[in-house]
Amino acid sequence: MELRGTTILAVKDANGVAMAGDGQVTLGQSIVMKHQARKVRRIYREKVIAGFAGATADAFTLFERCEAKLEEFGGNLLRASVEMAKDWRSDKYLRKLEAMLIVADAEYVFIISGNGDVIEPDDDIAAIGSGGAYALAAARGLKRHSDMGAEDICRNAMAIASEICVFTNDNLTVETITG
Q: Which residues are Na(+)-binding (predicted)?
């Protein structure tokens, strides 16, 4: 049976970036296995926030690889993300990992996939996982039509996603970096 149930959302504004992840892990279509998983964390000297959707063991491998690339490239998130995506796509072992990442610092937000994608969203909002589309839509609406900061947008958009997506709950981990 497949473990599912993740929503990760990152929002960047003029004051910095916030990333939120819900805590739900679901087995199959109906069994909630965990309510308070921690899918968002700080890496690279507390200067980068990373969140994952997908297999947990795979995600931890990717967190370690991302941090190693950040060390190698002196904290340059753009360069580290591109190099990591290249490795992920071309390495026989890494290619089998089933996860996606959002990484962010005060300057960038990227979605990184095993297909070699490094996507920088046009509107500084990125979301992945089962409830990602719901959180993304809510965050875009809140950013366009309110004066909320990045953290408030993350919290409110994730609350909306948790009301719609059965694989998303409202037990959030939120990390912020001020610019």
A: 162, 165, 168
Binding annotation for Na(+): 162, 165, 168
Query: 3, 14 in Cβ contact below 8 A?
Result: no
Beta bridge partners of 8: 21, 128
Residues known to be catalytic: 6
Identify the structural domains of the chain with CATH numbers, from first to last. Answer: 3-164 (3.60.20.10)
Between CA 157 and CA 8 the distance in angstroms is 11
Structural tokens at position 133:
């589309």
7-16 pLDDT, tens digit per residue, is 999 999 999 9
| pLDDT, tens only, 125-144 | 999 999 999 999 999 999 99
- In whole angstroms, give the CA distance from residue 173 to residue 98: 22
Binding-site residue numbers are 162, 165, 168
How many Å apart are CA 136 and CA 116, to the nearest integer? Answer: 22
Amino acid identity of residue 3, one-letter, is L
